[in-house]
Amino acid sequence: MAEKKKIFGFGFDPRESQHHFLVVIPRDNNGKVVIYERFKWQEDTEVQTIDYIDDRPKVELSKYKWKLIEDALKDEFNSRLKKEKLPTGKWKVGQVPVQRLFGKEMVLLAWAIEDCDPSVIPTAIKNWLGLSPEERWWLFTMTNAATGGLKDKRGWRKAVRYALTENPIEESNRQMDLFDLLISRKIDD
């Protein structure tokens, strides 16, 4: 009999790849949600130990802003997990692992809202949902290569914020307009 797959959080299976993202959600409402990109998974432990040398903090959000995007992330990821007949995930206080491609998409949205006014977060979510997963991966990769650190808030990172939060576009031209805006707004402070 085949061993049942153990899936953690949102689609993360450490037997396929140990590369994942780890969302750390504090209990305190005044705390910060931190998303780490990680390349190692510690087996046989409920709580992962953050290695401050190898684990890369990608973004930090107020819990308030996190709450504004968590349902959109959950719905998007769980819809795709259901199509693959995999267990769905949920956000909880503590640590939530996220499969690496979902993690890239999640970080892209978090980068877009990290320094924005909360009133534009619904626009960011709508524009983010209008992109295909492949477009989100590409935007993450380009942004991460240039400004992927926790405190890198210029260049591509700034352009992502403008593209997703300040660009309420029509449904029919959504994807092309976002890319055009992103390229035209790429600023290297």
UniProtKB/TrEMBL annotation:
- One Pfam family name is DUF3780
Q: Which InterPro entries match?
A: DUF3780
Name of this protein: DUF3780 domain-containing protein
Organism for this UniProt entry: Thermoclostridium stercorarium subsp. thermolacticum DSM 2910
